[in-house]
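During the no-cost extension, the postdoctoral fellow (Dr. R.K.) reprocessed legacy sequence entries with the updated structure-token encoder. One reprocessed record is reproduced below for audit purposes.
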Amino acid sequence: MNQREAMINRNNTARLFRNLKRNCVRINVGNSYAHELKKFDLAYATLMNGEEFATECEFTFHGKNGRCDFVNLDTGIIYEILNSESEESINLKKEFYPLPIEKVYAFKKDVKTETIFFKTRKGVKKGKKEVN
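Re-encoded structure tokens follow.
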């Protein structure tokens, strides 16, 4: 695929979303620290592959409004990060998301974590991080 075709493909994918800023990681303090860290990891890997992405972009599809965690504009795949969200809710989202969904876990399974506390504008929040 040449550069022009790649640009057309990215733009066609981007047209499905509102409130889209390319290659910008949007932080949502309502999400956990691990969730936001995984979003950054996805963004870094995507940029290193020479691809474009968007985070926390909104859409309307089949009459329902939604917001996805991460979308790769080159491949046209939405990544939903699972931390506290159940797999059943992700399976329900597949029905009204405009692109295919892949599940990504905020933590690798069977990895030890420890509780951390960090300061936010609204006070102190509790989170988790991996322990080596």
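The mean pLDDT is 85. The chain has one domain: 3-107. The remaining legacy entries will be reprocessed before the final report is submitted.
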